[in-house]
């Protein structure tokens, strides 16, 4: 049975859901991905390679897992994480403590209406967010607008393995086991039932590349990781 909300209710549904699971979010992620999620984020940050002294933005930052890595590349530059679920950022605030407010900050705001001027950022990342927005094309248009010419975006999202055997095992795990991990470690089976269902409804990697290109991004490429369970898309603003 589908628990996906209708489009007009999706943003409020997503905000409520992440508010509920914020305190256990990182723990469930590590267990459910067998600890692979941080390595995927490292790949994303390497793809955008934030320049020393530059500005980086992480869209739908959640608990801010990308921010220490982005800040490490940027040196004295500025790293900003934006999200509309404040409890997620509150749960990750400790990750910014050692960086200092002049180097990294959380901002409350909507990925579909980024509160930044055109051309503000050298590097933009987004991880496990595009499944959750109501308008993927608009999110990529906004990221394009706030990127400076020469800027790079990288998007990490779930995908479905190509190999039919792997795909079957992945489906059993994702739809049968993950909701129970969410229940046991995050206290919320519903949120971790939404996760595989939203993944099923998400465009294929090829289609996502088209959406990014139509939003203005150039030289869009993608690569699969984790036996095809996730995809990283990269694009440039020329
Ligand atoms: C699955 S979490 C991913 C968090 C983080 N990027 C990571 O890699 O773990 C999705 C996040 O996207 C945020 N989000 C979804 N739609 C959003 C929107 N329109 N504007 C801002 N944040 C949004 C949610 O609040 C949530 O924190």
Please characterize this protein's 3D structure.
This protein is an alpha/beta fold and 238 residues long. The chain has one domain: Vaccinia Virus protein VP39 (Rossmann fold), CATH 3.40.50. It is built from ten helices and seven strands. A seven-stranded mixed β-sheet has the order 3-2-1-4-5-7-6, with helices on both faces. β6 and β7 form a beta hairpin. The longest helix is centred in the last third of the chain and has 23 residues. S-adenosylmethionine binds next to α1. S-adenosylmethionine (SAM) binds next to α1.
Brief synopsis:
The protein is an alpha/beta fold.
SSE blueprint and pairings:
Elements: H1 7-21, H2 25-32, H3 37-48, E1 55-59, H4 67-74, E2 78-83, H5 86-92, H6 94-97, E3 104-108, E4 121-127, H7 136-146, E5 147-158, H8 164-186, H9 191-200, H10 205-214, E6 218-225, E7 230-236
Parallel strand pairs: 1-2, 1-4, 2-3, 4-5
Antiparallel strand pairs: 5-7, 6-7
Helix pairs in contact: 2-8, 8-9
The site of S-adenosylmethionine (SAM) has 20 residues, from helix 1.
Labels describing this entry:
238 residues, alpha/beta, Rossmann fold, 7-stranded mixed sheet, 7 strands, 45% helix, globular, binds S-adenosylmethionine
User: What class, by secondary structure content?
Assistant: alpha/beta
DSSP E strands, number: 7
Small molecules bound in the structure, each named once: S-adenosylmethionine
Report the total helices.
10
Q: What is the correct CATH architecture?
A: 3-Layer(aba) Sandwich
Give start-end ranges of low-pLDDT stretches: none
Oligomer: single chain
Reported for the largest beta sheet, the result is:
7 strands, mixed
Percent helix: 40-55%
Rg, please?
17 Å
- End-to-end separation: 44 Å
Helices and strands, in order, run as HHHEHEHHEEHEHHHEE
- Could you name the CATH class? Alpha Beta
Portion of residues in beta strands equals 15-25%
| CATH fold category name | Rossmann fold
